[in-house]
Amino acid sequence: QVQLVESGGGLVQAGGSLRLSCAASGRTFSNYVMGWFRQAPGKEREFVAAIKWIGGSTYYTDSAKGRFTISKDNAKNTVYLQMNSLKPEDTAVYYCAADRSVRIVVDTSLYDYWGQGTQVTVSS
Q1: Which of 72, 89, 68 shows the shortest CA–CA distance to 80?
Q2: What's the rounded Cα separation, in Å, for the pair 94 and 80?
Q3: How far apart are CA 105 and CA 94, in angstroms?
Q4: pLDDT tens, 60-112?
C-alpha cells in the first residue's frame, strides 16, 4: 500500500522559512515524479514544484522560483520542499503527490498518489 506522509508545516512569520518533508513508502518510486501542490481556502489545488526521482530534474511554478527548493533523499525515500522568504499568500495546505510518469507534469489529475497534507500558515 502506497503511503505519502507529509510533515513540517506550521505557523511562521512573513520572511521566515519552513522545510516540508514527504516520506514515501509501499513501493519503489524510482520511476516516479514527486510533486508538491498546495490548496488555499476557497481556491483550487495548484502545482508548486516537482522532481524526477531518477536524475533529479526539477520544475517550479513561477511563484516558487527563487524561494522554494525541492530535493530528495534516496536512502530515506523522502522528498523535501525548502521554503524561504515566505509570504502570507503562501498560506495553504501543502500536499505531496506521486506520478508514474517519465516527465514532470503539473496537472493534479495526472498524479496517482497523494498525502494527507500539512498546513502552512504565514502571518504578516
Answers
A1: 72
A2: 12
A3: 17
A4: 999 999 999 999 999 999 999 999 999 999 999 999 999 998 888 999 999 99
